[in-house]
Amino acid sequence: MKCNRVYDVTVREFALLTNGGNNHSIDCHSIPKSAFEWLLANGVSKSEGQRELVKVKRHGTSVALQVINFVGVLEMPCKTRIEILPKTSTDTCDPVSARKILLKMLARVEKLKLEEFQQSQLQVLKQPLYELLITHFLTAVSKLVRQGIRNEYQRIERESPYLKGQLQVTKQLRQRPGRQHHFHVAHDIYNANRAENRLLHSSLKQVLKWSTSSANQKLACELLFVFNEIELSSNHALDFRLWKDDRGLAHYRPLKPWCELILSYQSPVAMVGKHNGLSFLFPMEQLFERYVAKQLQRQLPPEFKLKQQASSHCLTHHNGNDWFRLKPDIVIYDKSRIVTVMDTKWKLLDASLNTTKDKYNLNQADMYQLYAYGEKYLNGQGDLYLIYPKHVGFTEALALFEFKPELTLYVVPYDLETDQCSLLMACS
């Protein structure tokens, strides 16, 4: 049975979702039976090509679903909306702080204009993530409307009872008998029905369906009135290709990433049947990797070049072919010379687990991977970096790891609140 109102649930990565009950913590939350069954049918991987969103876990005497490392918002057909926040600490999570960090990362990586969230009031940041994103989008559209919606000349070809514009002689000569008094003409009209405005109109219609905030709904309706005479986009891909970036449309530029996010972002969950619910889902490992790379790029001297996912080396050669391509997250070049290689890992290390058994929760495969990067990209000489998020259990760089005297590894924390990472600055 589908419920009529939106049921909001806020959890963080790796939280448990139980089928009914009274659990309401950020690490274990109850959801309606209809939402649980839909996630069980659609979120659990059943084939190699299907992206997995949840895992089935034992919870006491019953079964629960554990969300994995996607963050964002997912809406089920029964109108249950699950907001998944990043797990930035091992202790109790503050949703406001986690939401603010996630917004900052999205602003940098997805090129969304979210400068004002830094000064947002606490009450504003208590809203669900999707409402915050909708608020920022509507604010950006309001600013564009104040600056002026742009028109353009469009060529119109039509049959007219009077002569207007250019007569299309060939078509006119082929006119059927009895219709010679109608003219085939072509002329230009100046209106706002252009690709950019069609995409904005479609985005506004979409967020109006998603929003549950009366303030957002009111503003969306007011803006839709402004775009009322403009058609909806019938082909998003084509209209995005037609989006112009000239000087006269400079104030449209910040809106394009918003429209791409609203109209084009696909859920990682393979849906069964048609479901057009709200879905903003981001793999947290990729988001962390891209965010650190973009922040570091801003800090590098101009002569240095940063490249993400470089693939210029492979692990081995076999029968004249390259096998097992090596793709570090970040490679920094000084002209053609490689300065250092870095990899990011979205995992919470524990500096107190400094025993040969626990090894700070480091993954042995990651260490092998960094050693291979050092041998192939740095020719066995230089410094490597392994970057993890900073939290209360991992506040300072670990003691130096030595693969061999000429090849060393730094395991360093990245502070997502202050964007500080001292050893990263040393390489710049």
* Percent in helix: 25-40%
Low-confidence stretches: 266-274
This entry's quaternary arrangement is single chain
Output the strand order for the largest sheet.
Answer: 12-15-16-17-19-18
Structural class: alpha+beta
The major β-sheet equals: 6 strands, mixed
By DSSP (H or I, 4+ residues per run), the number of helices equals: 12
N-C termini distance = 58 Å
Mean pLDDT figure:
85
- Radius of gyration (Å): 27 Å
SS elements, strand count = 19
Strand content: 25-35%
**Morphology call:** globular
Descriptive keywords:
428 residues, six-stranded mixed beta sheet, globular
Structure description:
The chain has 428 residues and is α+β, with helices and mostly antiparallel strands. The chain is built from twelve helices and 19 strands. Helices cover 32% and strands 26% of the residues. The strands form five sheets. The chain has a six-stranded mixed beta sheet with strand order 12-15-16-17-19-18. A hairpin with a 2-residue loop joins strand 18 (401-404) and strand 19 (407-414). Helix 4 runs parallel beside helix 7 (214-226). The longest helix is centred in the N-terminal third of the chain and has 19 residues, at 129-147. The chain is globular and about 95 Å long. Residues 266-274 have low confidence and may be disordered.
Summarize the structure.
The chain is an alpha+beta fold. The chain has helices spanning 33-42, 95-109, 122-125, 129-147, 169-173, 195-210, 214-226, 236-242, 255-264, 284-299, 364-377, 422-427; strands at 7-12, 16-19, 28-31, 54-59, 62-67, 70-75, 80-85, 152-160, 166-167, 183-191, 279-283, 304-308, 313-318, 321-326, 330-334, 337-344, 382-389, 401-404, 407-414.
